[in-house]
Amino acid sequence: MSRIGKQPVTILKGVKVSVAGNVVHVEGPKGKLSKPFPSQVGVVVNGDAVNVSDLTPDKSAGALHGTIRAIIRNMVEGVATGYSKTLLIEGVGFKAALKGKVLDLALGYSHPIQYTIPEGVKVEVTDGTKLVISGPDRHMVGQVASSIKLYKPVEPYKGKGVRVEGEYVRRKEGKKTA
Q: For the domain that residue 40 is a member of, what is the CATH number?
């Protein structure tokens, strides 16, 4: 049994958690989230805590136990405070602009990149080179940041590209002339 999975998830103030069958619904000031879970793992709400338990002695249930507890904790924290990631765009002429629900990226290609922002995720562009991605769902915030970053990963010679704030990119030395 998982050590993390045994620990109860404390429900933060202003957050409501309910379980219907094997679907967990979490509602708070930042939004609503719901996620289905496998039937091998039981989720029970006890007052101001959520407990996750194995229902079968199966090995797969033990493997899912801690993961499901962590996902529920992330859902509770997300609807209470939210998650955010900051992306930095570096390079001459590299910029981003928000046009409704479409993010327009100029990343050194011959064409602009149009990225449609999914529901439940909010993107803010400041200075044209700084993107703040926020939302209640930790997985979606990370997925959007990763998708945008994949359009132009940071190259190690000049450091041009899209990076997460605080990410270290190892720089390489350029060619040596004879």
A: 3.90.930.12
Per the DSSP assignment, residues forming a β-bridge with 43 are 52
- In-domain check, residue 176: no
Distance (Å, whole) CA 156 – CA 108: 16
Order of strands, edge to edge, in the sheet holding 16-20?
A: 16-20, 23-28, 31-36
Facing residues of 27 across strands?
A: 16, 32
Query: Could you tell me the CA-to-CA distances from 146 to 95, 119, 133, 152, 177 in Å, in that order?
Result: 17, 16, 11, 11, 37
Last residue of one domain, picked from the residues 40, 59, 80: 80
Low-confidence ranges of the chain (pLDDT < 70): 1-2, 178
Q: In angstroms, how far apart are the furthest CA atoms of the chain?
A: 73
Helical segments of 81-159, H only: 138-151
Cβ(63)–Cβ(107) below 8 Å = no
pTM to 2 decimals? 0.88
Segment holding 73, helix H or strand E: helix 59-80
